[in-house]
Amino acid sequence: MPSNIEIKARVPNPKRFREVANELSSTRTTLKQEDTFFACPKGRLKLRTFPEGIGELIYYERPDETGPKCSQYWISKTREPDTLLLTLRNALGDIGVVRKTRELFLVGQTRIHLDDVEGLGVFAELEVVMKDGQIFDDGKAIAEDLMQKLGIKETDLVDGAYIDLITEEKAINRMHPMNR
Q1: What pTM was computed for the model?
Q2: Residues 38, 92 contacting (CB under 8 angstroms)
Q3: Number of domains making up the chain
Q4: Residue 64 is assigned to a structural domain of this protein
Q5: Is 124 exposed, middle or buried (0-12, 13-18, 19+ CB in 10 A)?
Q6: Measured between alpha carbons, how far is 13 from 122 in angstroms, rounded to an integer?
Q7: pLDDT in tens, 140-162
Q8: Phi, psi of 54 (to 5 degrees)
Q9: Domain containing 22: what range?
């Protein structure tokens, strides 16, 4: 099963982060993504759709903790994301949608994401794609080295997924309507 070592962090200075990521990477791509999350007894299940009318059904298991952590995932591509979305909503029920613009930088075996998440702000994700036989500590060392180069501090780290942050934000706004 594919796995990666990943971190997620808030980015206080997106301009500086982008400059450093560009220096580290020879490849940069911008993507629009919409992730619909579904009720799932364990792990997370989401359908990622792209403006081109294609999608990916992604299931992953990852602990909700800050710092480098192992994520195991499975991806199934689809050319019929709208039909699949309706099927999954009817079968499982959805728990929310995350819309983002993602800048993707490739550095060695690591995908660096600079995500502008609708309603939340700007975040970074590092995904060290593990090779066969590679151990957690190898991926962790790569992630920590890139965190240092990109200026990601321990205090910037976030646990959980964007959908968790969106759900928390909605709950806070319901409890404190004056925060809107």
Answers
A1: 0.91
A2: yes
A3: 1
A4: yes
A5: buried
A6: 9
A7: 999 999 999 999 999 999 998 99
A8: -115, 170
A9: 7-175
- Is the per-residue pLDDT at 42 higher than 80? yes
Residue 2 in domain: no
Q: Is residue 1 part of a domain?
A: no
> Are the beta carbons of 17 and 124 closer than 8 angstroms?
yes
Find the CATH number of the domain harbouring 139: 2.40.320.10
Instruction: Give residues with Cβ within 8 angstroms of 48, minimum separation 6.
Output: 33, 34, 35, 55, 56, 57, 58
C-alpha distances in angstroms, 116 versus 81, 93, 111?
23, 26, 16
Rounded CA-CA distance 59/154 in Å is 27
Residue 112: how many CA atoms within 13 Å on its side-chain side?
27
- pLDDT, tens digit (0-9, with 9 covering 90-100), for 66-110: 999 999 999 999 999 999 999 999 999 999 999 999 999 999 999
Q: Which residue has the higher pLDDT, 103 or 174?
A: 103
40 inside domain = yes
Residue 171, strand partner residues: none
Distance separating alpha carbons of residues 58 and 108, to the nearest angstrom: 23
